[in-house]
Specification:
Elements lengths: L1 H10 L1 H21 L9 H5 L8 H4 L12 H32 L6 H26 L4 H29 L6 H7 L1
């Protein structure tokens, strides 16, 4: 399983670096327009785009995997592990940029960090849960469309859950708690 994960990291290396550098620059750019920590909502989603460059049908690796002692469960499991690792890397890069911004005088609150991170992580993990299994049913071009649609679907699902929670407790007063439930 370690070898399959290293293969995925090797294939996606340039995409990962580009995504993380873009996140770092985006954090500074958003600091002039929005709340400083709002880029944390985008961090997990942007950093996980590199997973879809490692889809094995596009690299023709799936033809060779038949002869190797790796089960299909291990291959799919490594995609999920890579997805979670890239989400965490995106959050860490943005937190480093926010640390620099706070040293330069930007106001960063713990509540805003937790709130924006919880929204971003829940949307990204739900989208990954939807799109990663679908990748093996479609060709690489259609799987990229599924990836985009999965983020729209995850946002809709999260919105519906927040509205449902709002029936039982006021979400406006307990925003952070509501997103921890979601």
């Amino acid at each position: 399983m370690k070898g399959v994960l290293l293969k995925d990291l090797y294939i996606a290396k340039s995409g990962i670096v580009i995504a993380l550098v873009c996140l770092f620059v985006l954090a500074f750019g958003f600091s002039f327009l929005l709340d400083v920590s709002s880029v944390l909502m985008l961090a997990p989603a942007i950093s996980t785009i590199a997973v879809y460059t490692t889809i094995d049908a596009s690299t023709k690796w799936n033809k060779n995997v038949i002869t190797m002692p790796v089960s299909r469960d291990q291959i799919i499991g490594t995609k999920y592990i890579l997805y979670i690792l890239l989400s965490a890397a995106g959050i860490i890069v943005v937190l480093a940029a926010l640390g620099i911004l706070s040293l330069l005088g930007a106001a960063v609150t713990v509540y805003a960090l937790l709130f924006n991170t919880s929204i971003g992580v829940s949307a990204a993990l739900l989208a990954g849960g939807i799109s990663l299994p679908c990748v093996y049913f479609f060709d690489p071009e259609k799987s990229q469309i599924v990836f985009l649609v999965s983020f729209i679907a995850s946002t809709g699902i999260i919105t519906a859950l927040v509205l449902l929670i709002n029936l039982f407790m006021p979400v406006k007063d307990n925003t952070l708690l509501a997103f921890y439930i979601v």
